[in-house]
Structures are given as C-alpha cells and as structure tokens.
Amino acid sequence: MNKFLLFLFTFLFLAKAQAFATDDFMLDYINKELVQQPNVNLEYDYKSTKKIPMFFRIKESLSTRNKDIYEGMKLEFVSDRNIYEKGKIIVKKGDIVEGKLKLIITSGMNGIPHSLTVGDFKIDGISENALMDEYYKQGWDRGYIVYPLKWALTFLPPTGSLTNFIKGGHAKISTRDEIVINYYPEWNK
Fold first, then answer.
1. Are the CB atoms for 115 and 101 separated by under 8 Å?
2. Residues β-bridged to residue 101
3. CB–CB of 75/62 below 8 Å?
4. If you average pLDDT over every residue of the chain, what do you get?
5. Percent of the chain with pLDDT over 70
C-alpha cells in the first residue's frame, strides 16, 4: 500500500511540476514575442462561386530533368484565348502573364514521382486574392507497378525490399499543356 501511495504522490507531483514549468515557459515566451494578427481582408465576398476560367500555356517547357530550375523561379505564360468579363476583354489572346515555380518535389522510393507546382500569377487589373492560381503536374507514378511487384516478391525476403529503390518519373510542363486558372470576379471588388 505504501508503494502505491508513494507512486501516486510522485506521479501527481511530477505531473504538476511539468505543467507549471510548461505554463511558465509559455508565458515567458509569449511575453517576449510580439503576437500579430494575421492579414485579414474583409472587403471581399469569398462566398461567391462565380468563376471565369483563364487558359494559359507555358512559354518554355519546364522539366525536373533540368537541374537549373529552382523554387521561386519566374516563368512566363501566354494567354491561349481572349478572356471576357461582362463582355469586356480582361486578358487578350497572346498576352504574357508572369508566374512562379512555387514547389518542386523530387521523386522518392517505391515509385513516387517528381512534381511541380506553379502559381503566383500576376495579371494586370486582377487582384491576386481573386485567383485560384495553382497548377500541379506530376511525373509517372510507378507505384502502380512497384507495389504489386513488391508483394509478388515478398516470399523471397530480400528481393521484395529491392523494389524500394525504384523511383518515380520526372515531371514536365510542356508548351502543349493547357493551364487553367480560375478567376473569381466578385472577390476582386
């Protein structure tokens, strides 16, 4: 009985001491740091689902095989057609639009492919808040081949693990790929 009481007392004492130390640490940390409210834009009506699709093509092909690409790289896109809002042209066919390469994910084991994410499009007269502006492209996912092969080779212990070293395919955004960005005009007011 005494061992149980000693254990209970020790457990409760340590739990309280840990909570006190954590609270004290957090208070010190919060007092030292300046806490700011995030940027909130309440002028827009984000409930609206009215959208205008905008069609672009990249000016020069982009591939993960090219070792010179990097996140934040500026890219140029060409408008594929005239884009109208209420009968007025907002983007003409052939207009150049700037964007950025936002994210590069390299391929992984078990057939996971490379992927590219493009976004941050700058279009004259259109607020960035009014665009859903990410385009995602991934390479060939070899996982559909790797996993069945892995399970088929499982009865031979080391051979199933060798499939871990099969990597996925490279991602490429070609000049033939149509990139669709949605513009929400009621968010632009």
1. no
2. 118
3. yes
4. 80
5. 78
Q: Which of the 8 DSSP states describes residue 72?
A: T
69 vs 114: CA distance, rounded Å? 13
Whether 121 contacts 181, CB under 8 Å: yes
The rounded distance, in Å, linking the Cα atoms of 75 and 133 is 14
**DSSP-assigned beta bridge partners for residue 99:** 75
Which segments of 20-154 are extended strands (E)? 52-58, 62-63, 74-79, 83-85, 88-91, 96-105, 115-122, 131-132, 135-138
**Distance (Å, rounded) from C-alpha 82 to C-alpha 90?**
8
- Is pLDDT above 80 for 46? no
Edge-to-edge strands of the sheet including 131-132? 131-132, 179-183, 52-58, 74-79, 96-105, 115-122, 135-138
Residue found under tokens 């399970």: 151
d(CA 118, CA 132): 11
Output the pLDDT for position 75: 92
Q: What is the pLDDT of residues 160-177, one digit of tens each?
A: 777 778 888 889 998 898
Closest by CA position to 109, among listed 71, 150, 69, 68: 150
> Which pair of structure tokens corresponds to residue 183?
């513009």
Q: Which residues pair with 77 in a beta bridge?
A: 58, 97
* Whole-number Å distance between alpha carbons of 131 and 70: 23
Q: Which residue has the higher pLDDT, 132 or 97?
A: 97
